[in-house]
Design goal:
706 residues; alpha/beta; Rossmann fold; 31 helices; elongated; binds adenosine-5'-triphosphate
Length: 706
C-alpha cells in the first residue's frame, strides 16, 4: 500500500514531474557527450605525444629517487614497457647494486659500479639503457644509441638474452656483433641496430672497416666486466674504441673487482663518475652464502681426488676449473670413459662457438652434472643452481679465484667451493686469498676414501693411441700453464713431480718437454752443476727438477722468450694456452696441432660411442646407484670438514659405476644445432626460429628486441 501511495500520492512529486526528470536527463547526457568528445580527442592524439607526456611525468620524478627507499623495481620511475618486461621475467625486488646504481644512471650520471659476482649487475645497466632510449623516443632510423661491450662472446650472448627478456615490450632493435661471421654481411645490417652488444676486437674492426658504422649519435656506452676486458689484453683496443666515440654520452662501467687498470679505464671513459662499490665495506669479498674450503693435494693425486669427489656428489651440479684446454680435453675424454655416474661436459676455448653455447645450455638444463672448463667459463657466465665449484688447478690470482667461485652462490643462493692446492702453492695462495678478504678453510682428504683410477687410465691409453697423445698434450700443456704464470711465489714448474704426474694421467713415462729443456740449456754456466742434473732428470723422467735456482731460471726465461717485455708476452701466451692454445707445437710435445672441428668430431664420436655401448658392468649396478639421493650428499656435506670424500666402501671398484647420462654427453659433443652465438652458422630463419636466436640474419631484422 505504502508503495503505491508513495508513487502516486503527493509525497513523490519530483519523481513524476516530467519537466524536472527531462532536465536531469539532459544534464547527464551533456556531461557524457562532453566526456566522450574529450576521450575521442585524446585518442586522436598521436601516440608519441601521449608517450611524451608520460615520459615527462617520469623524468619529473628522477630528482626525487632515493636509493634508500627503493625495494622493488616498481619503486623506480620506469616506463610501463620496462616494468612489464621485468614483471614477466619474474624480477620484482632489486638487488643492492641495482638499488644503488639504477637511480644514478636514470639521472644521467656516469657510474662505475663494482659488486661481487652474481649480484645482478646485468640488470643494473640494461634497465637504464632501455629507459634512456625510451625517454628519447628512439627509433630504428636513429641508429646506434647504446653500445654494450663485453669481454667474451658467451657473456655478450647472455646479456643479449636478458635484454630480450626485459626489453621485449620496447620496439628498439638490438644486435650481437661477436666475430666469427663474414664482416661484410654484418656491415650491411649494423646501421639498423639501436642497441649493440659486442666484443671489443670485432667492434674495432667494424669501426675501422665498415663505412656504414656510425656511432656519432651514441647516447650510452656500457662496459661490462671491465676487469676481464683488460685482463684479456684489450686495453689498447678499448682506448681506440673510446677515441672513436662521441664525447657527449653517458657511460656505465661495471666490474666484479676493483683493480688499478679498471680505475685507469674509468678515468679514460667516465666523466665525474659516481662510484658505487656495494661490497666495499663488506667483511668478505665473496657472497656470504658461499662456503669455501681448500685442500692440499699432491699433483699425482689430483685426478684420483677429482674422481672420488664426483663419485660422492652424484646428485650435484659441479663446475671444475682447469688451467688449460688440453687438460679439459683429455680429462673430459677419460672421465666419459670412466662413467663416474653423472653427465660429464666440457667447455673450453678450442671448441667452436656454437658448441660452446650448446654445452652451456645443456649444463644449464641439467639438475646434476659436472662441467670441466677453462677460465673461459669463469667470469660473468650465469649458470643457475650450481652446487660446487672445484678449482682443480690453482687460479692465477685471487681475482680469478673470486670470479671462478662466483659461478655458484648466485643471487642469494647457497654454494660450495673447493680449491685444490699443491703443497708448493698453499702458503702464497692462501695468503693472497686472506688479503682479498676471501674466507677459506683448509679441509683434509681422507686417503682411505680416495679411489685410485691410475690403472684404469693406463688401460685406456694402452688401447687407444690417440687418447695417449691427448694425455701427453695434457701433461705438457699443464706444465706450460704453470711455467707461464706470473706469480712465481705460487707457481714453480720446477717443483713439480713430473714422473708421478705422468703416471697419474695414465702415461707410462713423462713426455719430453721441449720448452723446459730449452730453458735448462740456456741456464748460465755458473749454475750448471745443479742444472745439468736437472736436464738429466727431466730426460730420464725423474721425479722433480726443483733444485733450479730461481733467479737463473728467470734470466733464462727472458732469454728463452727473446723479449724483455716478457711479462706481457708471457701473459698473452698464458692466455692462449688456457683459452686459445696454439695450434702447433713441437714434435716432442706430441704434435699438438689439431683443429677445433677435428676436436669436436672426436668428442662427438667419443660421446656417441659411450652412449651406444654403455659398460654392461656399470648397467648391472645402475639400480643401486640410482638409489643415491641427495640425503647421501647431505651426509657427506655435513661431515665434509672431516671427510669431503666420504664415500661408502662400495664405491671403490671400477665396475660399480652407474650408467652415465649419455644424452648429456652426446649433447655436449655433437654439432647438431646451429650456431647459438649468432655469428658463425647462420643457416636460415628456420634454424633461428628453432633456437629463438638473436642472429644477425641475412634477410630480416630478427635483431628486434620486441
Ligand atoms: N632483481 C633480481 N631479482 C631476481 N633475480 C635476479 C635479480 N637480479 C639478478 N638476478 C639473477 O641473479 C643472477 C646473477 O645476475 P647477473 O648475471 O646480472 O650477476 P653479475 O653481478 O653480473 O655476476 P657476474 O659478476 O658473475 O657477471 C642471474 O641469474 C639473474 O637472473
Amino acid at each position: 500500500m505504502g508503495r503505491v501511495g508513495g508513487r502516486d500520492g503527493g509525497g513523490g512529486s519530483a519523481a513524476v514531474d516530467p519537466v524536472r526528470s527531462f532536465e536531469r536527463w539532459k544534464k547527464k547526457y551533456t556531461r557524457r557527450t562532453k566526456r566522450l568528445r574529450l576521450q575521442r580527442k585524446e585518442r586522436e592524439r598521436p601516440e608519441w605525444q601521449v608517450e611524451r607526456e608520460g615520459i615527462s611525468r617520469l623524468v619529473q620524478q628522477y630528482p626525487q629517487i632515493n636509493a634508500d627507499e627503493i625495494q622493488r623495481f616498481s619503486d623506480f620511475p620506469l616506463s610501463k614497457k620496462t616494468l612489464k618486461g621485468l614483471q614477466e621475467a619474474q624480477y620484482r625486488m632489486v638487488t643492492e647494486i641495482q638499488r644503488q646504481t639504477i637511480g644514478l644512471a636514470l639521472q644521467g650520471k656516469d657510474v662505475l659500479g663494482a659488486a661481487k659476482t652474481g649480484s645482478g649487475k646485468t640488470l643494473a645497466f640494461i634497465i637504464p639503457a632501455l629507459e634512456l632510449l625510451y625517454r628519447l623516443q628512439w627509433t630504428s632510423a636513429d641508429g646506434l644509441g647504446v653500445l654494450i661491450i663485453s669481454p667474451t662472446r658467451e657473456l655478450a650472448f647472455q646479456i643479449f638474452k636478458v635484454l630480450r627478456k626485459v626489453g621485449k615490450n620496447h620496439e628498439f632493435s638490438a644486435g650481437l656483433i661477436i666475430g666469427g661471421k663474414d664482416l661484410k654481411e654484418e656491415s650491411e645490417r649494423i646501421h639498423h641496430i639501436n642497441m649493440l652488444i659486442c666484443t671489443p676486437g670485432r667492434l674495432l674492426q667494424h669501426m675501422d672497416e665498415t663505412s656504414y658504422f656510425y656511432a656519432s649519435d651514441l647516447q650510452m656506452l656500457i662496459l661490462d666486466e671491465a676487469d676481464r676486458i683488460l685482463d684479456m689484453g684489450f686495453a689498447d683496443t678499448m682506448n681506440a674504441i673510446i677515441e672513436n666515440l662521441p664525447k657527449k654520452r653517458q657511460t656505465l662501467l661495471f666490474s666484479a673487482t676493483q683493480t688499478k687498470s679498471v680505475k685507469d679505464l674509468a678515468r679514460l671513459s667516465l666523466k665525474d663518475p659516481e662510484y658505487v662499490w656495494v661490497h666495499e665495506k663488506a667483511k668478505f669479498s665473496t657472497p656470504a652464502t658461499l662456503d669455501q674450503s681448500y685442500i692440499v693435494c699432491e699433483l699425482q693425486q689430483k685426478v684420483n681426488m677429482l674422481y672420488s669427489f664426483l663419485r660422492s656428489h652424484l646428485k650435484k651440479k659441479t663446475i671444475v676449473f682447469f688451467a688449460s684446454c688440453k687438460e679439459v680435453q683429455y680429462l673430459f675424454r677419460v672421465f666419459c670413459k670412466l662413467q663416474p655416474g653423472l653427465p660429464v661436459l666440457a667447455l673450453h676455448g678450442k671448441q667452436q662457438q656454437f658448441k660452446r653455447m650448446e654445452v652451456y645450455t645443456c649444463f644449464v638444463r641439467k639438475k646434476a652434472a659436472v662441467l670441466f672448463a677453462t677460465d673461459i667459463a669463469a667470469r660473468g657466465l650465469d649458470f643457475p643452481a650450481v652446487n660446487w665449484v672445484i678449482q682443480f688447478d690453482c687460479p692465477e690470482d685471487a681475482n680469478t679465484y673470486i670470479h671462478r667461485v662466483g659461478r655458484t652462490a648466485r643471487y642469494k643462493e647457497g654454494g660450495e667451493a673447493l680449491l685444490v692446492l699443491l703443497p708448493s702453492e698453499e702458503k702464497s695462495m692462501v695468503q693472497q686469498l686472506v688479503q682479498r678478504k676471501v674466507p677459506v678453510n683448509e679441509i683434509k682428504i681422507n686417503p682411505d676414501k680416495l679411489t685410485d683410477i691410475q690403472k684404469r687410465l693406463q688401460a685406456f691409453l694402452a688401447q687407444d693411441q690417440e687418447l695417449k697423445e691427448k694425455a701427453q698434450r695434457c701433461f705438457v700443456s699443464y706444465l706450460r700453464s704453470v711455467y707461464l704464470m706470473k706469480n712465481k711465489e705460487v707457481f714453480d714448474v720446477f717443483k713439480l713431480p713430473l714422473a708421478e704426474y705422468a703416471l697419474s694421467l695414465g702415461l707410462a713415462m713423462a713426455p719430453r718437454v721441449r720448452f723446459l729443456q730449452k730453458v735448462q740449456k740456456q741456464l748460465p754456466a755458473n749454475e750448471s752443476a745443479d742444472e745439468t742434473n736437472l736436464v738429466k732428470e727431466t730426460e730420464q723422467n725423474k721425479n722433480t727438477i726443483s733444485s733450479i735456482n730461481k733467479e737463473g731460471v728467470e734470466k733464462c726465461r727472458t732469454n728463452f722468450s727473446g723479449k724483455v717485455s716478457a711479462n706481457k708476452a708471457k701473459e698473452e701466451e698464458r692466455r692462449k694456452e688456457t683459452e686459445h692454445p696454439p695450434s702447433e707445437e713441437g714434435a716432442e710435445e706430441s704434435d699438438e696441432s689439431e683443429d677445433e672441428s677435428e676436436e669436436s668430431e672426436e668428442e662427438e664420436k667419443e660421446a656417441a660411442l659411450s652412449s651406444r655401448a654403455p659398460n654392461t658392468d656399470s648397467m648391472q649396478f645402475f639400480e643401486d646407484d640410482d638409489e643415491d639421493d641427495d640425503t647421501k650428499d647431505f651426509d657427506l656435506l655435513t661431515v665434509k670438514r672431516r671427510n669431503v670424500f666420504g664415500m661408502e666402501a662400495k664405491d671403490g671398484p671400477a665396475q660399480l659405476y652407474p650408467a652415465t647420462d649419455f644424452s648429456t654427453i652426446y649433447c655436449a659433443s655433437s654439432g647438431k644445432i646451429g650456431n647459438t652465438f649468432g655469428q658463425q652458422v647462420v643457416d636460415g630463419p628456420a634454424l633461428r626460429a628453432k633456437m629463438q636466436m638473436p642472429l644477425l640474419p641475412s634477410c630480416d631484422l630478427a635483431l628486434m628486441v620486441a
